[in-house]
Amino acid sequence: MKYKTVESILDRTLMGYDLSPDEGVVLLKQTDSSAIASIRSTADKLRYTQAGDTVTYVINRNINFTNICEQHCSFCAFRRDDGEAGAYWLDWAQILPKLTDAVQRGATEICMQGGLNLQAKVNGKSLGYYLKLVENIKQEFPHLHLHAFSPQEVQFIAREDGLKYVDVIAAFRDAGVGSMPGTAAEVLNDDVRRILCPEKIDTATWLEIVSTAHKLGLPTTSTMLSGHIETPEQQIEHLEKLRQLQKTAINQDYPASITEFILLPFVGQEAPKPLRRRVGRDQPVLADALLLTAVARIYLGNWIPNHQPSWVKLGLGGATEALVSGCNDIGGTLMEEHITTMAGAVGGTCMEVETLQAAVTSLGRPYQQRDTLYQTVGG
What we know:
Number of strands: 10
Number of helices: 14
Strand content: 5-15%
Radius of gyration: 20 Å
Oligomer: single chain
Structural class: alpha/beta
Shape: globular
């Protein structure tokens, strides 16, 4: 009987209906291999109708400009205190060669995020530091798309400078930031956040900042950190909040919205010990990640058509499997990445374009370079 329920849920989604939260939970709780195979193949069919057969990728460079951070998230192996061994804060002379190298390698996007560094100020203002960073980049490379500064960073700057979120986001937009990463979302449930990231912004603040970005014409991505302490119900609650956020942006005709959804499975190898012990494993469980990837496609696909796996967290093999479980994009070249790598991920930090293309070709699917906002680049 249970399997019939799964079948009837999947049939409805193939007719274009949105999953209800209860139906989403039913799908996530399946343990029968044939039911899971049906969920994944349904997600693959929906991927085809919602996003087509071509797998897209972006040539980008990731720059984590500092790991000095005032917060102590329980999953983070990246952060350091100022003065601690391994702490760093890149200055312009260290950032410029990274940008030059990225442009020489064909990058269209620079992704910038960093720790919450209380010393990162210009004339006593946090916003001044961030704007100077943007200004320097846009001056040297006006054509680069700057995908930068998470909702957490927006809240940090607003708090430090006594500003409203709208002021910070508008200043970023006017300085040349092209889009905002939807990171710091982790799981959008405050019970989970109290354990995972007690000092981080709460769910309502994350949603408010992302919605404000959409109103101001700044597109965002969306993410979910999965596979640690959260339940299937909490995973669906997260997806439901993202779907409502996107529906609001579309129905209210905001000038921007969410461009993509990225699942980020938890890597615990180097994570702080209390959470690592609680989770009980070092690397993501691929089967769990693929089921959640499939359910996310089914749940969000009518509203957020682009879905991307994290090859950094899953490895290229896992990310390739995600392309037949609902994903239509394989992400970016990154060129360097420190946050997940310092957590002990095995996926690596740089992916050559040819390697990404070969992974797509192995599935018999075409590939296409895109920009940050999913416009085609090149022929």
